[in-house]
């Protein structure tokens, strides 16, 4: 099967950019990353469908000259699903902004606990049960 | 009988529409959902009997044989359908008894029932899918419902957990799409039976790439280590019935997909060693996480991850006995894990919290709750003669029979995990159910240093000695880390609004009884898990036949492609 190099390169670049953005803290950037990534994946489907041909309507062309309609149907489904997901994530980002004033993806509870343990160990030899220094452990503030 | 096959998908979807229209009438919504799920249970039971008697049933939707979407009901699929239908029905009744989330005053919801029914439709569709893309669509159906259910009401904790959950799952869906595009480019079809026929002709490296992509996708959904890290953080914040159905079903759909693709598409897999190592790590690391937890919900989430390892172990063995053991374990584990999470919901309702620091004396407060927790907890740990024990023995026998050194290591690892599970649930039992609320309260005060003066006045036996060691506080045989101190501080501070069980009892602020509609489904599931023990003989026979079907790829391919022009 002949593979269209342009589509493949486009798919690779978009997926790469998407993954880079996914690793960001802000949910909005994660969202943009997902949009770019999903479009890259859709290009992969187009590459998988082989060379473009005539429109696949009965009687309009010879079956050998038609392009494969199935991957296009799959891509359409994937686009619709991604649209829904993106809309939901947007709502989540908005809600997060309402609640916290930012849309950063927050730390895992377990990570925060482990970090707290590490911080407390670093400040004292035997872990004291003092309450000092607990307030500044908010992961969001630490990062900035 | 083939006309019954699409019903487990269609009925819940019709129910979704009906409950959406009835959003102003909560009572009608409840009746419709309960009726729909009861019907699904009946259909699944009839299918189970007929498929076991007559063999695999195939429906080509719209009559497009060989081109359209196939629904395939084989022994594995209908067993999963029946177990999931029973479990979802129990959870639905429980959530009706609870008043859905237990906190509608802050978070009014009319979308619970439609979303729940879509989730059921997605799960059923995933079990019946005879097509990789249909499997993808059903995953999206159930995931999307789960996004909504996980963030019901949009409280801060749920938005935090939901964000991580959504992003992880969307990434895994993207991986799934890439796997689909690769598969389509390689073999020109996505129908499982046709893919199975054509994969043999591919270069091994291409087949390996497709296998790896699919495995990673499903491993994220099934929470196999190291792709399990999202799970323990996202599940516990949801309402109890939602967590229960997620824990019971969603990860098992991933396991089901792994079983299906591994046996059907890649029977001579070069990756079985990888799967076994992943299984070992999942079991051991998961259970070590469970031991470290001081909240029952989080503890159970970690045991969930850990016990996924047993099923992957069975798949990784790549023998008929191993697959049969895995199938039996899936059926057992769906029931038991859901039951446990429902019990935890009851604990939260009755005692106001699930944090071990706040609980004590539950066995005295509510003996029924004690029994309901104890039976599935011991079953989870694999105490003979319960189904957890039988499932593990089944798997270990398969491991020994396969005989490779790695399989023997896994048998040892599985035994260790079983013992550590026993330790984790026994610790929960001792702390939450066995000690008195007074002891729990004193321990919390001791942890933050309030209790020293009380202690001198009291009997030394009543309050165990406290030792500090490397950042942990040991009270008796139990260690608490710095993460628990916030909890203890809230309990010990007399003015704080959060109270522990001791304070709640003193203040007489506890609900005096549990709603019957919450207790009955939970008790029903606990009884169902015991029933699995009673009918273990026939059930193992059934799972062995299912495994024989799975190992014999030709029976699946033959059933699907029967009469299809090639």
From TrEMBL, chain A:
Q: Which InterPro entries match?
A: CPA3_antiporter_subunitC, NUOK/Mnh_C1-like
Task: Provide the membrane topology annotation.
Answer: Multi-pass membrane protein
Per the record, GO CC terms?
A: plasma membrane
Q: Which regions are flagged for Acidic residues bias?
A: 134-144
Main localization is membrane
Name the domain of life this protein comes from: Bacteria
- Point to the regions of Polar residues compositional bias: 124-133
Q: Where in the cell is it found?
A: Cell membrane
Q: Which residues cross the membrane?
A: 6-23, 30-50, 70-92
Which parts of the sequence are annotated with region: Disordered? 124-144
Swiss-Prot/TrEMBL keywords = Cell membrane, Membrane, Transmembrane, Transmembrane helix
Query: Cross-referenced PANTHER family, in alphabetical order?
Result: ANTIPORTER SUBUNIT MNHC2-RELATED
Q: Which family does it belong to?
A: Belongs to the CPA3 antiporters (TC 2.A.63) subunit C family.
* Protein name, entry field: Multisubunit sodium/proton antiporter MrpC subunit
TrEMBL record, chain B:
Q: How does this protein lie in the membrane?
A: Multi-pass membrane protein
Molecular function in Gene Ontology? NADH dehydrogenase (ubiquinone) activity
Subcellular compartments: Cell membrane; Membrane
Give the record's GO biological process terms: ATP synthesis coupled electron transport
From what superkingdom does this record's organism come?
Answer: Bacteria
Q: Which residues form the NADH:quinone oxidoreductase/Mrp antiporter transmembrane domain?
A: 129-415
Mind telling me which residue stretches traverse the membrane in this protein? Answer: 6-25, 32-51, 76-97, 109-127, 133-152, 164-187, 207-231, 238-259, 271-292, 299-319, 325-347, 368-386, 406-426, 516-540
The record, for InterPro entries, names: CPA3_Na-H_Antiporter_D (IPR050586), NADH_UbQ_OxRdtase (IPR003918), ND/Mrp_TM (IPR001750)
Does this entry carry the keyword rRNA processing? no
Keyword Transmembrane helix attributed: yes
Family stated for the protein in its record: Belongs to the CPA3 antiporters (TC 2.A.63) subunit D family.
What protein is this chain from? Multisubunit sodium/proton antiporter MrpD subunit
């Amino acid at each position: 099967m002949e593979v269209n190099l342009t589509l493949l390169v486009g798919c690779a670049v978009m997926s790469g950019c998407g993954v880079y953005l996914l690793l960001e803290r802000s949910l909005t950037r994660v969202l943009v990353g997902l949009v770019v990534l999903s479009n890259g994946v859709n290009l992969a489907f187009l590459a998988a469908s082989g060379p473009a041909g005539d429109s696949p309507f009965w009687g309009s062309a010879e079956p050998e000259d038609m392009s494969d309609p199935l991957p296009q149907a799959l891509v359409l489904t994937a686009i619709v699903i991604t649209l829904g997901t993106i809309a939901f994530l947007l709502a989540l980002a908005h809600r997060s902004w309402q609640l916290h004033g930012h849309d950063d993806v927050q730390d895992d509870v377990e990570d925060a606990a482990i970090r707290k343990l590490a911080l407390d160990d670093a400040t004292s030899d035997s872990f004291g049960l003092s309450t000092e220094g607990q307030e500044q452990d908010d992961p969001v503030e630490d990062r900035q | 009988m083939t006309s019954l096959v699409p019903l487990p998908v269609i009925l819940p979807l019709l129910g979704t529409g009906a409950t959406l229209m009835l959003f102003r009438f909560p009572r009608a919504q409840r009746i419709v959902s309960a009726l729909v799920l009861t019907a699904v249970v009946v259909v699944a039971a009839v299918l189970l009997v007929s498929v076991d008697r007559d063999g695999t049933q195939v429906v080509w939707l719209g009559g497009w044989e060989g081109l359209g979407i196939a629904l395939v009901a084989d022994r594995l699929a209908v067993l999963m359908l029946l177990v999931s239908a029973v479990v979802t029905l129990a959870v639905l009744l429980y959530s009706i008894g609870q008043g859905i989330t237990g906190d509608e005053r802050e978070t009014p919801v009319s979308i619970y029932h439609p979303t729940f029914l879509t989730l059921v439709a997605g799960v059923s569709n995933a079990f019946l899918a005879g097509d990789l893309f249909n499997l993808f669509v059903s995953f999206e159906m159930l995931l999307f419902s789960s996004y909504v259910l996980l963030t019901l009401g949009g409280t801060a904790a749920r938005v935090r957990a939901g964000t991580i959950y959504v992003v992880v799952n969307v990434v895994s869906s993207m991986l799934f799409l890439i796997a689909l595009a690769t598969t389509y480019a390689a073999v020109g079809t996505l129908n499982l039976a046709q893919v199975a026929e054509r994969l043999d002709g591919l270069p091994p490296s291409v087949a390996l790439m497709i296998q790896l992509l699919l495995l990673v996708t499903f491993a994220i959904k099934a929470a196999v280590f190291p792709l399990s890290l999202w799970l323990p953080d996202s599940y516990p914040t949801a309402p109890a019935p939602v967590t229960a159905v997620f824990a019971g079903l969603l990860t098992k759909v991933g396991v089901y997909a792994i079983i299906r693709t591994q046996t059907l598409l890649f029977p001579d897999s070069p990756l079985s060693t990888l799967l076994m190592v992943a299984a070992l790590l999942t079991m051991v690391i998961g259970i070590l996480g469970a031991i470290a937890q001081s909240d029952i919900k989080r503890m159970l989430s970690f045991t969930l991850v850990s016990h996924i390892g047993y099923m992957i172990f069975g798949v990784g063995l790549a023998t008929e006995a191993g697959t049969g053991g895995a199938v039996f374990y899936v059926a057992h584990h769906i029931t038991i894990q859901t039951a446990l999470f429902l019990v935890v919901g009851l604990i939260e309702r009755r005692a106001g919290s699930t944090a071990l620091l706040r609980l004590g004396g539950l066995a005295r407060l509510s003996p029924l709750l004690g029994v309901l927790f104890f039976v599935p907890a011991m079953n989870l740990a694999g105490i003979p003669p319960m189904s957890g024990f039988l499932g593990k023995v089944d798997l270990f026998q398969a491991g020994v029979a396969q005989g490779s050194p790695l399989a023997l290591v896994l048998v040892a690892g599985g035994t260790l995990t079983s013992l550590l599970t026993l330790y984790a649930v026994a610790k929960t039992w001792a702390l939450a159910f066995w000690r008195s609320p007074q002891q729990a309260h004193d321990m919390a005060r001791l942890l933050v240093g309030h209790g020293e003066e009380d202690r001198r006045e009291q009997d030394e036996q009543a309050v165990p000695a406290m030792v500090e060691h490397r950042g942990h506080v040991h009270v008796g045989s139990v260690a608490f880390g710095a993460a628990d101190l916030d909890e203890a501080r809230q309990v010990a501070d007399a003015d704080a609004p959060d109270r522990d069980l001791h304070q709640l009892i003193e203040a007489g602020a506890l609900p005096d009884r549990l709603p019957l509609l919450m207790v009955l489904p939970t008790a029903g599931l606990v009884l169902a898990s015991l029933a699995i023990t009673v009918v273990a003989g026939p059930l193992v026979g059934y799972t062995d036949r299912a495994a024989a079907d799975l190992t014999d790829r030709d029976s699946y391919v033959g059933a699907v492609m029967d009469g299809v022009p090639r």
